[in-house]
Amino acid sequence: MTPPKTMRKGIILAGGSGTRLYPVTHAVSKQLMPVYDKPMIYYPLTTLMLSGIRDILIISTPQDTPRYTDLLGDGSQWGLSIQYAVQPSPDGLAQAFIIGRSFVGDCLSALILGDNIFHGHDMVKLTQTANDRADGATVFAYRVTDPERYGVVEFDANQRAVSIEEKPKAPKSHFVVTGLYFYDRRVCDIAREIKPSARGELEITDVNRRYLEMGSLNVEVMGRGFAWLDTGTHDSLLEAASFIAALQKRQGLMVACPEEIALNQKWIDAAKLEELARPLIKSGYGKYLLSLIS
Questions:
Q1: pLDDT per residue over 119-158, tens digit each?
Q2: How many CB atoms lie within 10 A of CB 232?
Q3: For 231-254, what is each residue's pLDDT tens digit?
Q4: Most buried in the list 94, 156, 177, 283, measured by CB within 10 Å?
Q5: Which one, of 245, 204, 227, 251, lies nearest residue 96 by Cα?
Q6: How far is CA 148 from its chain centroid?
Q7: Are 82 and 12 in contact (CB under 8 A)?
Q8: In this structure, what DSSP letter does residue 216 have?
Q9: CA angle at residue 44 from 245 to 80, to 5 degrees?
């Protein structure tokens, strides 16, 4: 069943070559690799779902797009509508809004990177608040020890963002912009006007800086109660898997389970959940799904 047209559409950017994870990504997309017991792309997908977003575009490489189609289908099993688009070459994150322009249309939108994992007690509240904001852009800042690897945001004494720089050699703060962005209806036009940076990419930082210049950028700080995991290296991938395993074993609750979220959001019913769980009954995942309705 195709969901009704929603106010905001979501894009998952799952392209790139994953060279930092070679040789394991030589023949498979990074975002299809497991993070403990689920494909990596389940984590950004469910972040959008928890925000209330059901209309989703997945952008990937020409060779990997059919693999995502095989894994996720059209999303109707979860009450979603999932479409696909190809990114011929990785020319920057802002390219997502050029490739996805016809998908976004005149709607509000959100972009999440396919290798980013978010977790926290108030994560749903934070993203739903961003989803409800119709004007401007909302990004999320997180404190890291190596800010020079990211887009760095500088705050004034009143915690208002005053500058954003992409991978600066001398960072002005330890707060960086994470891979989750909410935008108003202007984003596709802004992305189209962006010029390639010195490294030849259409930088999402330049899009955010444009919103900052217009006085329309909201920066929400993710404090101590949040986890933001970037799974771009072997070590960070292992750390993310260990983090998810520890959470699930301690609490007995799944992280990033699209079937459970769809049930809680009332996008599917118990009968549909049981239908989805039965083929998976030999796995712990399938047994967990059945436990939700037993």
A1: 998 999 999 999 999 999 999 999 999 999 999 999 999 9
A2: 18
A3: 888 889 999 999 999 999 999 999
A4: 94
A5: 204
A6: 21
A7: no
A8: -
A9: 115
Strands 161-166 and 151-155: antiparallel
Q: What is the CA radius of gyration of the chain?
A: 19
List phi, psi (to 5°) of 170: -125, 85
Q: Which residues contact 141 (CB under 8 A, 6 or more apart)?
A: 153, 161, 175, 176, 177, 178, 219, 220, 221, 222
What is the per-residue DSSP string for 226-289? EEEEE--SHHHHHHHHHHHHHHHHHH---SS-HHHHHHHTTSS-HHHHHHHHGGGTTSHHHHHH
- The structure tokens 């990504």 sit at 25
Banded pLDDT at 2 (limits 50, 70, 90): very low
The single residue listed with the structure tokens 């479409």 is: 83
Residue 259, token pair as written in the block: 């079937």
Burial classification of residue 36, based on how many CB atoms lie within 10 Å of its CB (0-12 exposed, 13-18 middle, 19 or more buried): middle
In angstroms, rounded to a whole number, what is the distance separating the alpha carbons of residues 172 and 154? Answer: 6
